[in-house]
Amino acid sequence: MEVIQLTEQQLISLMKQMSLEEKIAQLLQLATPFFEGAKSEGRITGPMASMGITENMVRNTGSILGLTGAEEVISVQQAHMRNNRLGIPLLIMADIIHGYKTIFPIPLALGCSWDAELAEKCAAIAAKEAAVSGVHVTFAPMVDLVRDPRWGRVMESTGEDPYLNGEFARAFVRGFQGRDLSGDSDRVAACVKHFAAYGAAEGGRDYNTVDMSERQLREYYLPAYKAALEEGCEMVMTSFNTVDGVPATGNKRLMRDLLRNEWGFDGVLISDWGAVKEMIPHGVAADEAEAASKAIHAGVDIEMMTSCYVNHLQQLVESGLVDEALIDEAVLRILKLKQKLGLFDNPLRGANVELEREILFCGEHRQAAREAAVKSCVLLKNEGVLPLTKEQKIALIGPFAQNGDILGPWSWLGSQEEAVQLYEGFTRIAEPSQVAVAEGCGIESASEEQWKAALEAAQNADVIVLALGEHSDMSGEAGCRADIRLPEIQRQLIAALKPLNKPMVAVLFNGRPLDLHGIHDQVGAVLEAWYPGSEGGTAVAELLYGLANPSGKLTMSFPYAVGQVPVYYNYFNTGRPQGAPDAQVRYVSQYLDIPNEPLMPFGFGLSYTSFSYGEISLSSEQMTVEQPLHIKVRVTNTGNQPGEEIVQLYVRDMAGEVVRPVKELKTYRRIKLMPGESHEISFSLTERQLRYHHADLQYISDAGEFAVYVGPNSRDVQELRFTLMK
Q: Which of 6, 282, 397, 580 fits 10 for a cystine, CB–CB 3.0-4.6 Å?
């Protein structure tokens, strides 16, 4: 059905009919309980009731947060259209991060698939389920570059590499928005977040300070946001943190100068929850009026869940401190997004109660979730213990053996009760009589009965499979941890079972890289399952029994110890690097008690088969601006199973104008090989890929020597040199 489009002039005409009060209310986003027709209507207590929100403000509000379900959306939108003087529909927004009803692996896990097409597919399914339930905008993708696993929100990112994060940012935007947001009611608008550099919060502590040079910001933290915007992302969300001493939500240099003017973004900019008012405790605004002024001058169009705009902007305009033109431009951007979504033509858009019942959590979507989980798990260790066989007697022990808490944070309508638990996955493959199950301990505590049952199950088993991890509240927003080991009781469980001298496998359900001491060194195999989503139990069981072959590779380094953090592969060398030919024993950059290197490097992941790499070759020892370099390597499956390998190419600028990382991922290839099969991989490397931000922030390359590395991860690589001629 053709959508009736209002012209920009018609939208401007509509805006001119609005009073200043009505325009300001368009800039307000409120949670569901404020609205007539909501199931939770009227339950506005505590902080919500103290916001000073009037009934008239609600009638003119521009957007709603957290409303979902076709029936309730229809009820609220219809009531709003009756109450709004000019019939301007609500924008309905929600946090659809890694699935709506069908839950996919957390984004950090999806990143470990190194499969952007898969990520796009997952986002498209999430969009379809959200759209039929009435959602218009999702607060995703989160593309913050992350280097500190103490920060709980690393689970929402795809890792520590700017190039790879950018590839996934593009894929998620394509999946959510499709090619025609106006004509495709199965899609939702995407909102990239958190702008900017939220992933660099000091101490890995949520909402904390970020302080870095502009060159560092542009080189590592901004590229993935820019990639999302280049893909057409409709919205941007501000971050909670400071950028160069100014909270992002009131940072005019970041939002007006960079985002709007330099990058040309003219879409909707929304604050994160309460971030406008939080400029007061940050210490850059004396009161709500000053916070409102700073945010509107910075270019923030929508204030989420505080009332600084609606309570103070009118007075600021009337006193001449804020130009009404700033409000007009914000309102027009909001109206344009509503128009692009077709809401003026059909305020209910895709909301459909009957279709909702058919589409949500359907078999096709669950199958896609299983595929995503299979590709996202990472085999970290295997001393011949895996794969299991159906003939073996298995003791499945641990707090996640029969636990539906495998969806992870931001699971929206995902149901732990409907998630496939690991024991269920096992018994779909092996006879139940072959699998003894015991909890052993809770996530953070144990009873004597649990301990005893675990030991009894283990004594009669051929192999012990330990299902361990963090409960979902241990990660995600506000889920920061200084001690990133598994809870002590789980490590004690491993120690108690170790004297039985049975082969042991650890399966980890968690939202961050962990310090694996007491696990990695005590068991024969480790499978990192992350929070694998609705079909997690099926996917993990298939991997453990060899019905699927692990192919995931880490996109975030696993530290040797938390004292190394932040630890990441693309670090700068020092003037006294450890291991240099002329290095002293003591006076080098090192720890005295632990290695410098992470336990598991970026790009690492094992398979049930093996791959050998032939010698890499270069098409020339010289590159020019016009002539790219071609790098070839032959990869062979030398094992006895089909498998997928992710071949990675890194580069180092040996002598830059400023210090350059020891390695930078530039491209990669995912290949599938049968046993004995070989394939020649050819990479093309251009001068553009060698550019970086210099001291004066020019984005150019250096003439001179470069190293190129190819291998299965960032550590185990072959090296050749070439020269860039300019």
A: 6
194 preceded by cis ω (within 30°)?
Answer: yes
Confidence at 579, pLDDT banded by 50, 70, 90: confident
Would the pLDDT of 293 be above 70?
yes
Predicted local distance difference test score (pLDDT) of residue 51: 83
β-strands 678-685, 629-637: how paired? antiparallel
Phi, psi of 547 (to 5 degrees): -70, -20
| Confidence tier at 704 by pLDDT (50, 70, 90) | very high
The 10s digit of each residue's pLDDT in 23-67 is: 999 999 999 999 999 987 655 544 456 788 999 999 999 999 999
- Tell me the C-alpha distance between 705 and 544, whole Å: 45
Give the angle subtended at the CA of 339 by the CAs of 335 and 344, to the nearest 5°: 100
DSSP 404-469: ---S-SS-TT--TTTS--HHHHHHTTS-GGGEEEE--S-SS---HHHHHHHHHHHHT-SEEEEEEE
Task: Find tokens 């999302």 and name the residue.
Answer: 228
Give DSSP secondary structure letters for 362-396: -HHHHHHHHHHHHHH-EEEEESS--S--TTS-EEE
- Interatomic CA distance for residues 687 and 274, integer angstroms: 44
Distances (CA, A) of 81 to 64, 353, 389: 14, 19, 61
Residue pair 152/206 in contact (Cβ under 8 Å)? The answer is yes
User: How far is the C-alpha of 168 from the C-alpha of 372, rounded, in Å?
Assistant: 14
Distance (Å, rounded) from C-alpha 626 to C-alpha 37?
A: 62
| Residue 675 DSSP label | T
Count, in order, helices (H) and strands (E) of the chain: 20, 27
CA 42 to chain centre: 34
Of 250, 253, 293, nearest in space to 271 by CA: 250
Supply the pTM of this predicted model: 0.97
Q: CA torsion sign, 217 to 255 to 155 to 362?
A: negative
Do residues 292 and 313 lie in contact, with contact meaning Cβ atoms separated by under 8 Å? yes
Q: Which of 371, 328, 267 is nearest to 13 (CA)?
A: 328
How buried is 518 (Cβ within 10 angstroms: 0-12 exposed, 13-18 middle, 19+ buried)?
Answer: middle
- Among residues 125, 636, 678, 609, the alpha carbon closest in space to that of 371 is found at 125
State residue 162's pLDDT score: 98
272 catalytic per annotation: yes
Reduce the DSSP state of residue 525 to 3 states and report it: strand
Partner residues linked to 33 by β-bridges: none
What are the Cα distances from residue 298, in Å, to 235, 360, 384, 667? 15, 39, 58, 36
Of 380, 396, 378, 416, nearest in space to 467 by CA: 396
Mean pLDDT in residue range 91-109: 98
Out of 115, 148, 161, 272, the active site residue is 272
Token output for 240: 């909670």
d(CA 115, CA 646): 10
| Angle, helices 116-132/363-376, rounded to nearest 10 degrees | 150
Q: Does residue 4 have a pLDDT over 80?
A: no
For strands 235-238 and 268-270, give the pairing: parallel
pLDDT > 90 fraction of the chain, expressed in percent and rounded: 94
Three-state SS at 507? strand
Residues 206-228 have a mean pLDDT of 97
Dump the DSSP string for 318-352: HTTSS-HHHHHHHHHHHHHHHHHTTTTT-TTTT--
pLDDT of the residue at 544: 98
The residue among 76, 112, 199 whose CA lies nearest residue 605 is 112
The closest alpha carbon to 14, from 331, 261, 256, belongs to 331
Phi/psi for 503 (5° steps) reads -60, 135
Distance CA 141, CA 582 (A): 46
Strand partners, 243: 246
Quote the tokens at residue 667: 């491209």
* Cα 680 to Cα 494: distance, rounded to the nearest angstrom: 43
